[in-house]
Design a protein that fits this description.
It contains eight helices and nine strands. By secondary structure, it is an alpha+beta fold. The protein has two domains: 6-91, no CATH class; 101-222, TATA-Binding Protein (2-Layer Sandwich), CATH 3.30.310.
């Protein structure tokens, strides 16, 4: 299917990769992993412990050395979340977020994925909301975003910040349409994003965020 989510395209590959990531990360020093990711590590004994962090601003726990992500209900998280968190732990290094926002295509190797990325991120929001940028703002806030003050969102008519993982913020920016051009929506990344996720997984994050925002339409309709 055109513009299909990469997670749906490669679900079996992610199942395999989760096992490989767990095996590799289980050999790492957990305190080093905590320092690199911004997670808190709670040791249980000399060889085991639990990482505490948040994804989409919701708390999760990551058991070490099993590297199994547990959700708020103390149940294993979905495969998508397991993979996203493990990729984050594998990749995290280097400087923390800088507050300098760039387009997906400006990230390392982003141009290769950019056309597909726009198809299942910003364009999906355009199809769902059209020129109703105020509705997009409402949906983004309901999905866990934080609206930036006007002086910080000069890059668009509005900008909503999501904290995907401790050191992975993403910005949804919208531009109001007019008689000549329709409204447009884009996800921007901190320039440090490639220090925390591979570029193809950054693309997946954009698609996940788009679906979280669009899902608010159905939720509101059910109220």
């Amino acid at each position: 299917m055109e513009n299909q989510s990469p997670f749906k395209q490669e679900e079996s590959n992610f199942t395999r990769r989760v096992g490989e990531l767990r095996a590799a990360l289980g050999k790492c020093d957990p305190r080093t992993l905590a320092e690199q990711t911004g997670a808190e590590f709670e040791p249980r004994d000399d060889q085991t412990g639990v990482f505490h962090l948040a994804i989409w601003d919701r708390p999760i726990a990551l058991r070490f050395p099993e590297l199994v992500v547990m959700g708020e209900e103390h149940e294993p998280a979905a495969l998508v979340i397991q993979a996203l968190v493990l990729y984050y732990f594998q990749t995290a290094h280097g400087p923390a977020p800088t507050g300098e926002w760039v387009s997906f295509s400006e990230l390392p190797d982003g141009k290769f994925y950019n056309q597909a990325f726009q198809g299942y991120s910003g364009k999906q929001i355009s199809r769902a909301f059209g020129n109703n940028t105020s509705k997009v703002q409402q949906a983004a806030l309901a999905a866990g975003g934080k609206l930036l003050p006007a002086e910080q969102s000069a890059i668009g008519d509005f900008a909503c910040r999501f904290r995907v993982l401790p050191r992975l913020p993403v910005l949804l920016v919208g531009w109001q349409g007019d008689d000549d051009f329709p409204a447009s929506y884009h996800f921007l990344f901190d320039i440090s994003a490639a220090n925390y996720l591979p570029i193809d997984v950054c693309a997946i994050v954009g698609g996940m965020l788009a679906r979280k925002v669009i899902a608010q339409v159905a939720r509101d309709a059910d109220l």
